[in-house]
Each structure stands twice: as structure tokens, then as C-alpha cells.
Amino acid sequence: MIDYTGLHCPVCGKPFARDDDIVVCPECGAPYHRACYASEGKCVFSDKHGTNTAWAPPKQEAQKEPVNRAECKTKRCPRCGNMNSQNAMFCDRCGQSLTINQQDTPGFQQNPSNPQNGFPPYGAPFQQGPVPFLFDPMGGVNPNEQIDDVSAGDISRLVQSNTPYYLPVFMNLKRFGKNRFNFSAFLFSGGWMLYRKQYKTGSIVTAVMTVLYLISTYVSIHFATPLLQAMFQKEGLSLDSSNVTYAQMMQVLAQLSQQPDQQVFLFCLPTIIAVIQFIIMLIVGFNGNKWYLKHCVSKVKQIRQEAPDATHAAIQYQEQGGVNTALAICLLICYLIVMYLPQIL
């Protein structure tokens, strides 16, 4: 069947739209708007019927436009098997980087006779050597499912790393309101948020935790520890003593109760700060997944609005998504310096 869209009506000269009411000449196949054919009452090429000059679709219009090689889906994802455009930098479905060599990917088995080229269809088991295993980079979530007007597939393109964990968590949050405690967010708090490129909130949490730690360290070194040492010395003890009796500890506490209120506060301040830090860690652990979902949805919507085409959108997903490993390493080094510097000094 010929697609007449874009061809011109021989009577009015206007191009046919997809929804136009079109009739064709039963002799030569020339297309007309129904009203145009009715006004003429016959085919305008009737005198040429049966000859080599009868109507035929113009070659330059009848032929389809050349295929854009950049839009050909020839690049297969080494994680989920999804086909992507030739210039894609990462998978449209699971966010896996497509710049790596597929031959070096675990589970890849080249098979020229297999149209899947060694990859099973989405959701099917991969092969790693002789041992099969199941792997779904979407964590069982349909890429087309919507989360706050954003598809799970687009969110996976932003998350990229550890999508089998985050996508089911995000879906449960939106479907059932059920959250999951994030132990990485609990243990590393602001560092985890910076690692996940939540720079604004992560910077605030990291700054607060750092300031609390520095205050606690300063007070411990200059006030709490010297005061405790002085009280132990009055009892003939040292801080390194391992045979302190209950009675001696009560004597130390009695001395503490006789100290001015300011001294008692400074002595207890490191413990108070430790409790505050633990509460902050709990808050981040319980709310980390919610905050990360909000961050991902916001970023996806921003990329949709700002990216002029799919290529630029792919670049933005790659740059703004995933994790910041370099920053995580720098934070770890800074943490070790802050931890051990007081001991060196």
C-alpha cells in the first residue's frame, strides 16, 4: 500500500496530510482529495492511461528519507541487552555505560549465528562462564512505569550505579509509601549524599557534621580530658588505669558534681555532640532514599526542559547522574586527616 502523505494532489496542488480523505484513480492510481476528484469528475491523466507516461509516484517524494545512522539502534547494552542508538553513551533502559568494550563485559558470549549477539532478552538470565545467574538491572521494575510523571527508565539513566536497589525502593515509596532504611546513608551521611551528587543538601550535612566533630575534639582536648585527668590524679589514679574500682569512680563523679556548671557542661559537651551526630545519621538513614528520589525526579525534569534533543539529554544524564567517586575518595582522605591530626599534634 502506497503512503500518499506528502505527495501533491494533481488538482489543487496541496500536499496530502496523513488524515486527508484520499481517493485514487482505478486506472493509474493517481491520488486526489475526494472533493478535488469530485470537482473534476475524472482523472486528469485519463488521456495517458495505458501508456508509459501514465501517472506514477515521483521518485524523490515516494522514496523514504535516508535513514539517520545516528538513530539506528545498533548498539546493544552489555547489562540488559537493550538496543540503543549508534551514538548512545549509555543504555536508555538501565543507564549502563556503552563506551566499554562489550567483549570485556562479564556475561558476554559472542555468537555470530545468534541475532541477540550473545545477549539474552531483557530480564532473561545472563551467562558468566558455565554458571548461569539472574540479573535484572531495573530490579524488576518496568522501565515505562511512572514515578511522579517521570519514567523509571529515565530515573535509571540518572541513577546508573546500583539501579537494582534504588528503583524497587523508589517504586515502593510511590506505590505503598514503604521506605527502606539506607545503611550507606546512615554510616556516611553527608558523604553519601555528595557521592550521589546531591551537592546542596550533602554539603550542608557534611558541614554540620564536620563542625560538630571539630567542636567535640577541641573541647575534649582542652577541657574535658584535662579535667578528667585532674580528678583521677586526686584519687591517685591515671586515665590509663585498668583496675579502677566502683568506689573510686563514684569519688571521681563526686568531684565532678562539685565543679562549676560551666566546667560540667564542657565535660559533658562531647557526649552531647556524639548524641546529636547519631541523631543526624539516623535522620539521613531513614530519609536518604526519599531525598534521593526527589533529587532524581527533579534532575530528570530539568534535563527534559533544557536538553534540545536526545543527544544533549544523554550527555546531561551522563554528567549529572551516576556517582562522584573522585569526590568520595577526597572526602575519605580529609576524614582520615581530621581524625588523626589531633593525635599527631
TrEMBL record:
Domain of life, per lineage: Bacteria
Transmembrane feature ranges: 201-224, 264-284, 322-341
Gene3D superfamilies referenced in this protein's UniProt entry, alphabetically: Zinc/RING finger domain, C3HC4 (zinc finger) (3.30.40.10)
Keyword annotations: Membrane, Transmembrane, Transmembrane helix
CDD domains documented for this protein: PHD_SF
Record-annotated Zinc-ribbon domain positions: 77-98
Entry keyword annotation includes Transmembrane helix: yes
Pfam families: DUF2628, Prok-RING_1, Zn_Ribbon_1
InterPro entries in UniProt: DUF2628, RING_finger_1_prok, Zinc_ribbon_dom, Znf_FYVE_PHD, Znf_RING/FYVE/PHD
Protein name: Double zinc ribbon
